[in-house]
Each structure stands twice: as structure tokens, then as C-alpha cells.
Amino acid sequence: MxxxxxxxxTYSRLVGAHSIRFVILQxxxxxxxxxxxxxxxxxxxxxxxxxxxxxxxxxxNLQPITVHGLKRRVLxxxxxxxxxxxxxxxxxxxxTLWIDALxxxxxxxxxxxxxxxxxxxxxxxxxxxxxxxxEAANHxxxxxxxxxxxSHLGKLDRLVKNSGAIGKWHALAELMxxxxxxxxxxxxxxxxxRKATVYCGMKQVNWxxxxxxxxxxxxxFNEVNKLFRPSSPRLNKSVENISLGNVRHVSAHALVTTLNxxxxxxxxxxxxxxxxxxxxxxxxFALLQVTNxxxxxxxxxxxxxDVRPMREPVDYSKSISEVFKDLINHIxxxxxxxxxxxxxxxxxxxxxxxxxxxxxxxxxxxxSNWHRINADSLAGSPNRPIYNAGGKIRxxxxxxxxxxxGFVMHVQGFVLDTIFSVEQPADGGIIPKTWMxxxxxxxxxxxxxxxxxxxxxxxxxIPDPVWRTLVADRGHDxxxxxxxxxxxxxxxxxxxxxxxxxxxxxDLDTQLLLNxxxxxxxxxxxxxxxxxxxxxxWNRRLAVTNRAFIGLVPTETKIGDDVCILWGCSxxxxxxxxxxxxxxxxxxxxxxNIMDGLAVDSAxxxxxxxxxxxxx
Length: 616
What we know:
The protein is an alpha+beta fold. Helix content is 29%, strand content 18%.
């Protein structure tokens, strides 16, 4: 009987809290139809099995597979899973696997909730985790074979200078851009794996060798990249039109280099210590993708130090907003901080409230073509705040209500100021000339001096509040602002031919200056300054407040928006009051002189009135 005529497989309910299912993959030739058995068992029974880690991929072209039992039935699976089973199948022996799409009844939310909470335990008990990268393509066979050479330290120094290896390096770089590395679920699947094997087409390598090769590729990237320069005498004509991109920025490199920062493992591969809390994981891996937005949270809960997976319920029947509300509430209650609302972490979704900042605000674009699209978050990383605008006297507190279209967050703070004017954004790293013109004029008027040395708007000097705003009054990694930044700022404007016949400013193209280094001895310091300026200003606007402060605000900021200090938030935020009395979070901002708690000190003596904000 053809598969199409067979009745669909129906799942029997799991019996008991520890019950799971295994797939028994039946042996067969590569081209034969896929056949499986589905076995219900108990995870406490130490039955040897493997777990499959893969991408679901396109689900529009489902493939039939046969389920053997008392009667033959049929299940339909995604094309990538069908191909994976075909490659993993043995010709003579059965293979016992745990596969989420087949072992969990996907349309039973109660079962799904229960089984997702067990996934860390499942991957931790598996004797091997099979990582399926996909079918052979883009010279992946060559890349998989090359991994053993790269991970061999005795060969590495020769390979980075070998023009004959250019095609292999490129193939490895392409392998590292496979979609599997962009999945959020892989964090726990690999972190809890005692042993893992990477499969691509017909080739396979140990995860440890793959991890070493990727790490070493990143360490040696500058040397390898020299082979691909058009001027390189080693460049082979057959590969002269290919480039590596920066492999340090692809998800594969980020994954293997950060796993040791997430967990510590024993010699046998068991996880013996978790190292990150929920806020750190959410913030650090914001660009890893999920199919269901709820998995932004659920996929990493088992890795967090401050969450006990079997006691924290997974519930796919909750709305996305409610899942995210629970996350924010957990962070606020645990640490008394609101900085999470300033960092981009939420997946792209039109229905999300403004307090869930979406990854469209992330500093870098997701995917293989890694490039800057926004400035870095001013809030910095969890547990290491760069600023202290909200002070440390009062912890954050959040109350919630559901107004029918999502949850509204009630927080305390005060309105510091209001936006008086905004300039054009620093699009693509180009700082509009009006930033300097407006900034200097504001400082001049504030000083109330007709004889101001800045009145000519020339580039021979730049007032402190202006150049400090370009770097958000900090050095790299949140360090105190180096004094030489002032001199560097004047120099970059001079190099950019910043003055015309009237000796006034023009647009400053930071990327052009970075791409045109000079050999006069100060190139590294100028580069460091320009990189800091890009990290602060990219796609932000210069703004002036009613009280004549200058600052940097999100590109969506409008005249009349409020600059606010929220208790427990290390940076100021821009809020927009709507007719219903509720506020929209536009984003974090920098305002001169108030980033280290000065406004909070004024609030303590009654200059500002504490109010409740209702952020929707």
C-alpha cells in the first residue's frame, strides 16, 4: 500500500511524569523509504540513546515516513529532518534517537510544556548528540576533512601560509555559516551534551575537533585573511573573487568561544556548574533565532543559575507578552534592576509592548553578513553597568496590569527634561556637521559669553561637553574617558578636511577615516577613538533638551518626548506620553552631566517629583 493511502499516526498519551518517547530508526539503504518505531519509555531506565540537534527548516514541503507498530501508520516531517534520518540510518542495525519533532506530540501543549522542561536532562543523558548541519554543499566535504588538519597544532602554522589551502579555508568559513549555528536551542543541546558528533552530508567529525578548529581559525584569522588579499602573491587566480568575511563574527565562532563561559564540565562531559543568570543569557545571545517567540526564554532557562527548570513552568498556552512579562518580572525581583528594558533581546514581533526591546535595535545585523547597524547599548552588560544615572539608593520595582492588548509595566522615577530639538541621525557612521554646529552653539549660549572662543565654529578646538558626547563620556568597555580623546577628536576633524573656506564643520565620515589609515605613528590611537565614536553614535541622533543639555537619543525620538530617570535603571530613557496616559518606551539615551547620579541627588532634595510611569 502506498504511504499516501496509510492512516496518519496518532500519539498515545504519555504515562507518568518521567515518561518520554524514543524513535527507533529502522535499518535500510540510503534510497529506501524511511521507517521508524516510536517507543514510550521512562527516562529513569538507563537505555542507551542518541539525541538529534538540527534545524526544523522549511515546513511547507513535508515528507512522509512510515511508523511501524501494530498497524502501519504515516507521519509527515520537514524535509531537513527526513534527509537527516536518511544520512543517520544504518544499513543493518536500528538506531535509537530522541528527536523533538517525533518524540513530542507538537499539538498537545500540556505534553509539550512537560517535555521541553526535560530537554536538558535528555541531552545530558544521551550517549551522543548528533549535530546535523545539512546536506553536502559549497565544498562542505572538503571543509569537514580540513577540520582534522586545522585542529592539529603541528600543521596549523603551515596551513595559514599555504596558498594551496585557500579553497579549504573558504569552505570552512562557509560551513561555519550554516543555519544550525543560529538556533537558540543549540546552546543547551551542546552545553549539556556529554559527547557530540557533527554530521554534514556523508562526513562526520567529533564536536571537540570541530570546536578546536573553529577557535583556532578565529585566532589565526588575520594571518589566513592575508591569503585572500588581491595583492597577495599567494592568491590563486581560481579563487581571486572569493573572500572570507570576518569569521570571528559568525555564530559558530561565538558559540564555541562562549560555551566555557556558560557552563563548567567534568572530564566525562557532565555539567557540574552553571555560570550565567537569566539576564546575562538573554542579553548575550539575543541574535540566536527561534521559530516560536516564547522559546526566546524557554530555550535557555535550563542554563541559568537563577532558574530551576523543573519548578519554573514552561507554558506554550501563554501569550508572548505574558512570557516576556514573566521574564522581566523575574529579573526585576531578583536583581532590582531595569536595565533589561534598554537592551535589545526580543525577537521581531509587531505585537510586543515597548518594554520588550526588539533585536532590530541590536548593534549588529543577524546572519552571516555581520555588520554594524546601530550603536552599542549604553546599559552595557548585566552585572557590569557602565553608568549610574538611576542611583543605587532605590531598587527597581514593577507592577503589571493587562489592558487587553498586552501587559503594562508600572515603574517609578521622574521626568528629568524634555526634548527641545533633534538632529539628523549618524547614519552609516557619518556624523552630520550640524551636530558640531548645534553642540557648540548650545555650549556657547549656556556660558553666556559674547567672547566665547567657540563662536567662530572652527575645528581648532572642541568644547568638552561636545567631544565627550561623541564618546558618551566613556572609553572602551565602559572605562573612564581617556584625556587624549579630546586631542583625537580635534585631529579627526582636521584629517577629514573639516573646514571649508569659511572654516566651518562638514559631515564626519568615520568609516572613511578608518578605511584610510595613515602611517604617521598615531594611527592606532585615532582608530581606537573612531571605533568608540561609532559604537556610541551609529544611528543615534544628537538632541538638545529644554534645559539646554546635549545628548544622544534613539533615531525615533521626537521633539516633546520626555527624558526620564527610572529607579533601578543605570541610564536615562526617552518616554512618549500618549493620550491614554500611558507611556511608550522609545529607548535609552545619553545626557551630559547626569549619567553618574547627579539628577538623583537633585531628586533627593526635592528638585524633581517622583511619579509613576505606565509603559505599554
